[in-house]
Predict the structure.
Amino acid sequence: MNYIGTRGFHNHRTFAGALLDGLAPDGGLYVPQSWPSLDAAELATAAKGDYGVLTEKLLTLFGVDVLGAEAVKAAAAKTKAAFLRNGETPLTQVEDNLWILELWHGPTLAFKDMAMQMIAPLTDAALSQRGEKLTLVTATSGDTGAAAVRAFAGSAHVRLVVFHPLGRVSPVQRLQMTTVEADNVLNIGVEGDFDDCQRFVKQLLGEASLKETGLISSVNSINWGRLLGQVPYYLAAAAASGADHPEFVVPTGNFGDAFAGWAGRKIGANVGHLHAAVNSNDALSQAINTGRYVRHQATPTASVSMDVQAPSNFERLVFEASGREGAATKALFDTFAADGDVTLSADMQSALKAEVSASTVSEETTKKTIKHAYDAWGQVICPHTAVAVAAALERKSGKPIIALSTAHAAKFPEFVTEALGFAPEVPEAIQVLYGRKETITPIKNDYAAALAAVKGFVG
């Protein structure tokens, strides 16, 4: 299994190369050179079995075994530990043909743990093979950074730099990043929004002066390895539901989680239609539904991890919808980067709609859905989950639907309390954060300041 870039890079990377590069040399994102496939019956059998074995099977299918069987086994074990609830797939049926899949049973109580717990041992294995060290830079709207810090803190091979928008992540998300004491971690708060942080990461990955200090990559979902860790739970959830090709409704900001589901469907798994549910930061929804892809300043919402107006993984979907035309994909995203405004061709818009659908959920509807979930089903859900559930309820028509629940409600206590009239129960993993010393480096919304901070950290 080799990997190519979405903007025309065809010199092929193994999984290890794609993992450590982050971005492809053409400035695009890595995708498989060709999509593997397995017999549907074989995939169905694997999906019904042990989650760790399923994960090993999928990792091997995508060429992760280039790092060795032991690395695959270790990564699968980490992913399994972050996923199950009482040893089972955490799927709860709340109505006829409607399920909620809880993806927040890992160490930071968010779905990012599955992929991050997996990518950490794989990265260590790849670096050990090469005898090198790596600087990882990542942007976060809350959960990615917390999961990355927890996964990579103390690594002998990795230096981790996390950018987050100051004042635009929940207090719990911030504490999960800034209270971990590790010499190999630098937390940077940017006076801007998530898209500014993500822009800095992409610029840093191409920074020649940083490359002179050693390898540099990212653990955002621009990194194929990060995204790959999210594929297994689509298969496991579909199997646990007993439904035939259930639709998945995914609350999304950067579109990585939704694209992981698309990948599961692409390889022949029992994964049905994919629907992206977004908050008022709806550039993705507008692009799919109107053909206009426009970058606006992100608006703060209760579902803070979805406050994204330039979702990176949209590029992977465009590449696939274009018939894997690297030149066309490059032209579109070069224009978007320069102008912040692209009109998709009618053919492109039609091709995108054939792959996914999307809708926008308001703050008012998000709050009402949190209350509905508790009153109707006894479920206390976070704002991100509420966005997905609201969209799922709107789409119900007798077909099976699985809505993804991406974080524990206690990570967003103020909004949930407003919706319910009482505070969500706080797990011990959150309680122990309060009162701990925080370490954070604030910077202006300026690339030069970001570069200086990273250079000062890596030496």
Remarks:
- The longest strand covers residues 158-165.
- The CA atoms of residues 147 and 337 lie 28 Å apart.
- The two ends are 35 Å apart (CA to CA).
- The chain has a mean pLDDT of 95.
